[in-house]
Write a structure and sequence with these properties.
The chain has 166 residues and is mostly helical. 48% of the residues lie in helices and 9% in strands. The protein has a domain of 96 residues: Glutaredoxin (3-Layer(aba) Sandwich), CATH 3.40.30.10. The longest helix is centred in the N-terminal third of the chain and has 28 residues. The relative contact order is 0.15.
Length: 166
């Protein structure tokens, strides 16, 4: 009887712990709806405010991607962004990441208009980096799929600026 109840208890513990493990795994994967296709291995923050808090706390730059679901340019950039291993790796390890499908009330994030897609960098001192721009003078913070190497350079620049300035 002792052996039987020990076995039953062990099986119960195994069942409970595997359910728990699955629940924990699910919990860990929950924010992936926040990726919206930009990269499922990246930990995304939900709001600009949370992004600023995390940037300050972790001393990492915040990267804000403004986009819309029905914008073909956003879709094309998203695909290139998600498929680029170097970007995904940097975004995952060195940045606080936020993608937004609505405008923020922070006017600093739309210095030259509220177009999409646009990508802006905010350093841990909470300064919006107006000096990290894309290639187009009429839309300073926009990137196209062929600009991915340029975006990578700008991500590296955002990281360098932290080391040299802060």
């Amino acid at each position: 009887i002792m052996l039987h109840s020990t076995l039953a208890l062990s099986l119960l513990l195994i069942a409970v712990s595997s359910n728990l493990a699955m629940a924990i795994k699910k919990e860990k994967r929950a924010p992936q709806t926040l990726s919206r296709g930009w990269g499922d291995d990246i930990t995304w923050v939900q709001t600009y405010e949370e992004g600023l808090f995390q940037a300050k706390k972790s001393n990492k730059p915040l990267m804000v991607i403004h986009h819309l679901e029905d914008c073909q340019y956003c879709q094309a950039l998203k695909k290139a962004f998600a498929e680029n291993e170097e970007i995904q790796e940097m975004a995952q390890n060195s940045f606080v990441m936020l993608n937004l499908m609505h405008e923020t009330t922070d006017k600093n994030l739309s210095p030259d208009g509220q177009y999409v897609p646009r990508i802006m960098f905010i350093d841990p001192s909470l300064t919006v980096r107006a000096d990290i721009t894309g290639r187009y003078s009429n839309r300073l913070y926009t990137y196209e799929p062929q600009d991915i190497p340029f975006l990578i350079e700008n991500m590296k620049k955002a990281l360098r600026l932290i080391q040299t300035e802060l």
